[in-house]
Amino acid sequence: MTNTKIHKVTLIPGDGIGPEVTDAVVRILEATGVKFEWERFAAGAEAFEKYKEYIPKELYESIERNKIALKGPVTTPVGGGFASINVTLRKKFELYANFRPIKNLPGLETRYPNVDLIIIRENTEGEYVGLEHEVVPGVVESLKVITEKGSTRIAKFAFEYARKHGRKKIHAIHKANIMKMSDGLFLRCAREVGKGFPEITYGEHIIDNTCMQLVLNPYQYDVLLLENLYGDIVSDLCAAFVGGLGLVPGANLGAEAAIFEAVHGSAPDIAGKDIANPTALLQSAVLMLRHLDEEAAADRVQRALEKVYAEKKTLTRDVGGTSGTKAFADAVVKAVEEAA
Length: 340
Hints:
Distance between the termini: 14 Å
Number of strands: 12
Strand content: 15-25%
Radius of gyration: 20 Å
Mean pLDDT: 94
Structural class: alpha/beta
Shape: globular
């Protein structure tokens, strides 16, 4: 029986290389035979040029309707008073869990082979609430907000994910030796939730030690549970184990909506040159397929991507190949079709 379900997805191609990598990913997804109805919207610099706002109202409404979005990299102006577009969308839709799996691609040599880590980061509070003010001239105060609700919610997400996917260990990462109240609350919530999951080994490591331990031996970790700022830093650090931000997926998940995105920048210097690597957005789209319960299609795309990497014939320049964005996407499409 053919699957006739049509998934309505908000598509945000983004800026710079965003439209190129997004077009490549859309082609690959459509090669699976899964039916999509894309609602395409500008955001970031492109949207500001057209509409004088970084996130158009229609984009908000589309995500509210569809509950799911696929997002390329967008340019957020540095300074100028506008909050990060990513942070704004996460707050608006209560996307409290940032989920970043870190896994090597075949055929790609790195200093750390066979890494398999899950980074789960609280996505709505901590330092990223953006509460800053000048107390007196020359003295600025920035508030870090940690709540029992937010900490418990992200801990539950981590433990439930670990149970469902057969993960054995969770480490909560903190600085409670210094921030005794805020990080202390985060740890108390994680410990309380952990009591309900006796089959999962729970540990706690201080953030600075964790960074050293990761570089010395990332294999000692399985699932890392982190507050917002620590999670931002550690997830990028771990991306380096498998080749960088151009390769790893990202998902922002909430009770109602989900946004799947490439976490790298918009790289305007190489935009339009057919040299960008769509792997990060493609792996994010695989997470989206799983979220949509299209497991078979997700497996096909992942296997096709890994086949192209293992063969090494049509890789982009950033990973040692000579092919362009379109040729790479063609190769993955072919592998998807052959696996049908």
